[in-house]
DNA sequence: TATTGTTATACTCTATAACTATA
DNA sequence: TATAGTTATAGAGTATAACAATA
């Protein structure tokens, strides 16, 4: 039962470098990717692709969008948007119609069925968040949210809350 | 110069769905990936691959590791660790030696040159962080760091600070 | 027979660029 | 000629599994 004095223990506890744990950026990336991984796994269980939820959420708010606008919003190449919409349209969660004012354009909108699915996804994501942020109490979570929003807005103007009325 | 009243404005401001901005998990993922993207771009400017910094940081602390341990720590398949180490060894930043106690093993360690490079990378990453977190004052940054560490530890035991002394 | 590190294969993802139809 | 959407091609990245050496 004596452990032989090898140079390297057979199963040392693998640990992240302390240097990296001191880096807020590293932690931010690691935790953020951790959440995203869990979220995508959850969505996949329900038969959804990575961008489905975002697209449905955008359409539920903005009503009707051209595909190029969706591409801008999602930060995605227009050619990739096609595949996402094909998949959503096949399941009748969104609709494409020609814009009568410019027949090159497709106007995309969410269907009633799409809204119902979105509502379910919302619930699922809410549950996942409650689980993920469980170690933080409500007040702390709120504080964290504020900080993240500040950073998000600072690095991407698309995140800015702002009423769209030009009035 | 009159704007024709098309159904969809030619260039609407693309904005992220409000629903998503209300989600802490979504913000966390987005900001985290944003930082990682910037960090990788920075490292690439210096001729470094994504895992180079982590590997050097681990070796600088833990001295000598078997490749399988590195794989565990990095959450990487052993076959991928090979390529990372090949690249680092070619540049003489790390060394591989056979473990005399078990000749199947390679004992990996950082070289003097590797330590110098690590020091430069450290500085670069520090600069990037200062830039990235600029909208937050020092105290707030510290608070954010604490929260992230709590979450990181909760979801991955490898993040736990713990003295390795079995004493 | 099991384990360490390595190499080879196959698959997925995605960026790019050609293509059509409209303007 | 330029733009919106689509399709096709090629390249990078990665997971998987076979492999050689050692235990």
Strand numbers in spatial order across the main sheet of chain A: 1-3-2
Oligomer: homodimer
Mean of all residue-level pLDDT scores of chain A: 89
Provide a count of the helices of chain A.
Answer: 7
**Chain pair with largest interface:** A-B, 75 and 75 residues
Give the tally of β-strands of chain A.
3
Order of helices and strands of chain A: HHHEHHEEHH
Largest sheet of chain A: 3 strands, antiparallel
Give the end-to-end Cα distance of chain A, rounded to a whole number of Å: 80 Å
Report low-confidence residues of chain A grouped into runs of 5 or more.
Answer: 1-10, 163-167
Q: What is the approximate shape of chain A?
A: elongated
The helix/strand class of chain A is: mainly alpha
Summarize the amount of helix of chain A as a percent range: 55-70%
Amount of beta strand of chain A = 5-15%
Radius of gyration of chain A: 22 Å
Explain how this protein is built:
2 copies of one chain form a homodimer. Chain A is mainly alpha-helical. Chain A has helices at residues 18-21, 24-45, 52-62, 67-74, 78-90, 112-132, 138-155; strands spanning 64-66, 94-99, 102-110. Chain A has a 3-stranded antiparallel beta sheet. The model of chain A is unreliable at 1-10 and 163-167 (pLDDT under 50). At the A-B interface, helix 1, helix 2, helix 3, strand 1 and helix 4 of A face helix 1, helix 2, helix 3, strand 1 and helix 4 of B. Chain A binds a DNA duplex (23 and 23 nucleotides) through residues 66-68, 77-82, 102-106.
């Amino acid at each position: 039962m004596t452990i032989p004095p090898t140079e390297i223990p057979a199963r040392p506890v693998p640990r992240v470098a302390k240097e990296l744990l001191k880096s807020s950026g590293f932690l931010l990336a690691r935790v953020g990717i951790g959440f995203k991984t869990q979220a995508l796994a959850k969505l996949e269980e329900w038969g959804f692709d990575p961008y489905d939820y975002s697209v449905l959420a955008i359409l539920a708010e903005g009503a009707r969008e051209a595909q190029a606008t969706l591409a801008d919003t999602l930060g995605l190449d227009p050619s990739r948007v096609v595949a996402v919409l094909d998949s959503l349209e096949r399941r009748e969660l969104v609709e494409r119609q020609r814009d009568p004012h410019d027949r090159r354009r497709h106007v995309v909108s969410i269907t009633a069925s799409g809204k119902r699915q979105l509502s379910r996804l919302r619930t699922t994501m809410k549950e996942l968040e409650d689980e993920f942020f469980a170690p933080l109490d409500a007040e702390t979570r709120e504080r964290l949210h504020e900080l993240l929003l500040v950073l998000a807005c600072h690095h991407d103007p698309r995140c800015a809350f702002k009423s769209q009325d030009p009035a």
